[in-house]
Amino acid sequence: MSTSPKPDLSVSIWRGGSEGTYQDFAVPSRDNQTVLDVVTYVQRHLDPTLSYRFACRVGMCGSCAMTVNGRPRWTCRTHVSRVAKGNALRIAPLANLPVVKDLATDMQPFFEKWQEAKGVFEPSKSRDDAIEPIRPTTRERIAADAGIECINCGICYAACDTVKWNEDYLGPAALNRAWTLANDVRDAGQRERLQAVATGSGCHACHSHQSCHDHCPQTLNPTASIAGLKRLTAQAWLRGEIES
């Protein structure tokens, strides 16, 4: 007995820059279809001018992050059957970032926040020194482990209400990175890092809404990392190591 074909998906995709608009497409519905599959179909078969980013397609790089029906997601890991509302999808670029074109955002502000948060390892030894062993059971290593799997996809940054209200806020990803480095006993840049994240746009600007934790595809909890930084900066200030 033959089965009737599935109705097409009604897909609305953001076109243009920050002042763009949505364009509607009809996309064939298929089994096990991801949102990235849908976007790729549109670009390859309906409108080759559509701009978007992707690389690995297997949830490793995070470059395919977009807003799907109002929620930031990795589109390669998001199955249409789980998110389509009434067989409809609305796909937009990530929020809180400048739009280059269509679904592609300018990630420069995101990575500049990493630099502002001193999110770069500062070695305390030279290449001539012996490699310092770090036991996985130490308190510092356990604390770093909780946030170290971030792959810079920008999902938490797009979901963050504080970033939306305050464009100078460093954001969950940069502060999470600062927290992992603050727990690296080999790092020599702790005072400068704590000073950087203690500013008005740093960790104390976080309202602990937990949006970053709720949306992170890696199930990390940047809010917990930021809370740790709040404690460390307060302690450093009381010791006179950093300025308020």
Characterization of the model:
The protein is an alpha+beta fold and 244 residues long. It is built from ten helices and seven strands. Strands 2-1-5-3-4 form a five-stranded mixed β-sheet. Strands 6-7 form a two-stranded antiparallel sheet. The model has no long low-confidence stretch (mean pLDDT 94).
Ends apart, CA distance between termini? 74 Å
Shape: elongated
Kindly state the number of beta strands: 7
Query: Rounded to an integer, what's the Rg over CA atoms?
Result: 21 Å
Biggest pleated sheet: 5 strands, mixed
Q: Determine the mean pLDDT.
A: 94
Low-confidence runs (pLDDT<50, min 5 residues)? none
- Element pattern in H and E: EEHEEHEEEHHHHHHHH
Please report which band the strand proportion falls in: under 5%, 5-15%, 15-25%, 25-35%, 35-45% or over 45%: 5-15%
Number of helices: 10
Enumerate the strands of the largest sheet in spatial order, edge to edge or round the barrel: 2-1-5-3-4
Structural class: alpha+beta
Helix content: 25-40%
